[in-house]
Design a protein that fits this description.
single chain, Thrombin, subunit H, six-stranded antiparallel barrel, alpha+beta, 2 domains, 5 helices, Pdz3 Domain, 305 residues, elongated, six-stranded antiparallel beta barrel
Length: 305
């Protein structure tokens, strides 16, 4: 058997073993993919779903309306409760995530428009990217198996059809990031599957990155200062109730310098007693505000804290 014949046989074998577990998520706009992980359970990305329900299309062209069972927007994960019928659950791989150079097979069914199976290789490990609201997601698998738009939420699998990761983010041209299907993910997904959505404390602001904020201050002749510039304050949010406003520069959070969005997120996650003190600059005026924090809602915008 030649090399090409062997590759063809491997791809066909993966398709036969795993394709029935791969589903389409959504219809018309905002489509994605997902994977059956148990009877009545589909795993996908949080950015693929809107509201409490979502359309799920199976490989036999059957379409069902699923209910969002558990949601973690910042981790970009969602578990959908839906009638899976005879669609088998994909088995999780054992033995740890694949290393650099390992072959992986990517499967997707963008919006239920047809199954795709591609072959690639792991090109990097322990990569990071930002989730839908700007929080950093770490430990991802980078690979080069080609994927169409709408493939996020679909799996990468091993040659024996076991789940290695969940495709989540496109990285440049021809590279993709997948959340590894390790014990951490499995524990998290098990919690989401029983309705334990992951709340996150938040301010309710949209921010301009620190380096952009510095340029903007220089452009209008303001003194040099490092921090995150508030570009938006959500109505009835912890930030609005504390008096934050568009144009404020957040320079300290819990007494620590804010030189990037990760500094702010870290301060929020470690805030004691649900409160955090922020040092603010507005032009040259300095003030300190005490913010009573709230949990993240089930929707959000990129770069929001």
């Amino acid at each position: 058997m030649g090399v090409l014949d062997a590759i063809e046989e491997e791809i066909r074998g993966v398709a036969e073993r795993a394709s029935a577990a791969v589903v389409g998520i959504g219809q018309r706009w905002g489509v994605g993919s997902g994977v059956v992980i148990g009877s009545g359970q589909v795993l996908t990305n949080a950015h693929n779903v809107r509201g409490d329900q979502v359309s799920v299309t199976f490989t036999d062209a059957r379409t069902e309306v699923g209910r969002i069972r558990g949601l973690d927007i910042d981790g970009d994960l969602a578990v959908v409760e839906v009638e899976t019928g005879d669609s088998p659950a994909l088995e999780w791989a054992t033995g740890g995530p694949p290393g650099v150079g390992a072959p992986v097979f990517a499967l997707a069914n963008p919006g239920g428009r047809g199954l795709r199976v591609t072959l690639g290789f792991v090109t990097g490990i322990e990569r990071s990217f930002r989730g839908p609201r700007g929080r950093r997601i770490t430990g991802s698998i980078e690979h080069d198996a080609p994927l169409l738009p709408g493939s996020s939420g679909g799996p990468i699998v091993s040659a024996d059809g076991r789940l290695l990761g969940l495709n989540t983010n496109r990285l440049g041209e021809g590279f993709y990031l997948a959340i590894p299907a390790d014990e951490t993910l499995r524990t998290h997904v098990d919690a989401l599957a029983v309705g334990k959505s992951t709340p996150r404390v938040r301010l309710g602001i949209g921010v301009v990155p620190a380096h952009v904020a510095s340029r903007m201050r220089r452009a209008v002749g303001l003194p040099e200062a490092h921090g995150l510039l508030v570009r938006q304050v959500e109505d009835d949010s912890p930030a609005s109730r504390a008096g934050l406003a568009q144009g404020d520069l957040v320079v300290l959070a819990a007494g620590r310098p804010v030189r990037g969005v990760d500094d702010l997120f870290e301060a929020l996650e470690t805030a004691a007693d649900g409160e955090i003190e922020l040092a603010i600059l507005h032009g040259t005026e300095e003030r300190t505000v005490q913010v009573r924090l709230g949990e993240a809602a089930a929707s959000g915008q990129d770069g929001n804290g």
